[in-house]
Amino acid sequence: MKRFRKNKRTAERGLARKPGSRRSAARGRFPRAALFALLVALLIPVVALPDSLTVVLREHCQVSGPVVRLSDVAVSVSQRALADLEIGKAPAPGAFARFSADFVRARVEEAVGFGTPVRVLGAEAVHVRRKAQTLTADRLIQAIRERVAASLPEGARCEVELVRSPGSIRLPAGELVLRVEPLGVVRSGKLAFRVDCVVDGALARTLSVTAAVRIYRKVVVAAHDLPPRTRITPDAVQVVERPLSRQTGTPLTDVAQALGQETRVTVRRGTVLTSRLLRQAPLVRRGERVRLVVNFHNVTAETYGRALQEGGADALVLVRNESSGRTLRGRVAGPGLVVVEP
Prior knowledge:
Distance between the termini: 186 Å
């Protein structure tokens, strides 16, 4: 009996050593399963849970530019990279706009992706006001006056009055420059202007303005009534400041311009002298007794005669010699002087 049990145990040990038995198979599968689990763990990506983003809104804010950004409406943002996020367009200068917390959350979620939780704290809505400055009528008149004065001759000045005031014009806050261009020739009367309102180098608005312009300049006027063909002398004229309107001819601005000329027609006292009212006075008049200088073969003789024609400097006129009665042709050399050459 004992021998039978011993042989049975020996047989069982032999069976355990045979390849393909259950115990040996179990021992062979364990390392493979561990290796497979390790490979699976290495191949599966690690998915990190997204961090939440917190935005704290303020109740009121002011902006200068045409765009409202997250940094304008928020007291704090947990991600600084989103501070420049555009929330929406700013209202008109001086006006208000309302941005709700839900609207801000939607804009932030759209920017960061809907997988990131966004928390919006603080006010339920933000009231945004755009900073503004007012363009007054006085500032507009000053700009037009400076532009008109730049096109006037030296010594002239101008007065400007708006025909119809545009009222107070709101513009964005910033450095304001007015660029004025006249739509026509600068003169006294009603003129149209284009005014470009430039704020911080950018065109903010263009205005069409009509203004009444009066141009003043010192001009030469008649000191008393001047009959036709009156030679202008210093006591016949004076210089005064007058508004320039539509006139025929160019007004004289210096007495020296009028001296030596004569009137074409009757000029009343106070009339502005222009090039149309005056002409160069002849140095020799018809019927006037003149001095004759005759040059003949290096011999010069002087006598007197009567001018049969009138003429200015270097003009050829006919003169009758008083001594001989002969008619000669000579050149006007000065007032009452005619030179005759062969």
